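Key idea: predict the complex, not the pieces.
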Amino acid sequence: MSAQIAPSVLAADFAQLGAQVEEALLAGARWLHLDVMDGHFVPNISFGPLVVQALRTLATQHQAVLDVHLMITNPERHLEAFARAGADLITVHAETCSNLSTVVSAVRQLGCRVGVAINPLTGLQAFEPVLDQLDLALIMSVNPGFGGQAYIPSSTAKVAELRALLDARGAKAHLQIDGGIGADNAAAVAQAGATVLVAGSAVFGSGRGIAANLRALQVALG
Ligand code: DX5
Ligand code: ZN
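Result:
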């Protein structure tokens, strides 16, 4: 199966959030990426469990994965709230966890799938203690905090290296990439081994509209 696009609602018009998300789902999105920012781990503040909960019904109607990306310090304090709000998958940053294995187990005990993310300056060895337990490994291809940033080109080689690591272990985790993805680089990143490509501005930003933007990305992926 070819790689999937996970629209990031961070770039949506929040006055029309439900309608815009529905448009993406009707256009075939099967993942919804929700960026939670705390103004501490990252400079920006976005939203919390209320928005996850608000989108739960739409995601269920379209059989989409509610993919919650926690860019927050002390994520363990908030896991239960996001699980209760309806997250299918919760991703924490390796940089925020002093004991990553404990946090990964805590997410799983709440009945959610679990992901770990690393920043551009963090090495792949951060995944090492938990790689076999993950449903998703996320490589950030921008410094987290804001949508609309330029893709960091060295991320593609990092994806290829992680793909080789996962394959060597027979690990089935999704390999997700997040930041600066567009129709210009989606194919190369998928070719390198990413299976889920997060796209915010390329889906919800200006252009020909959400459905057409999504289609352009899907066409680029082939
Ligand atoms: C960045 C977020 C991304 C962001 C992607 O901190 O984690 O998910 O919304 O936005 P674009 O696709 O515009 O780079
Ligand atoms: Zn994200």
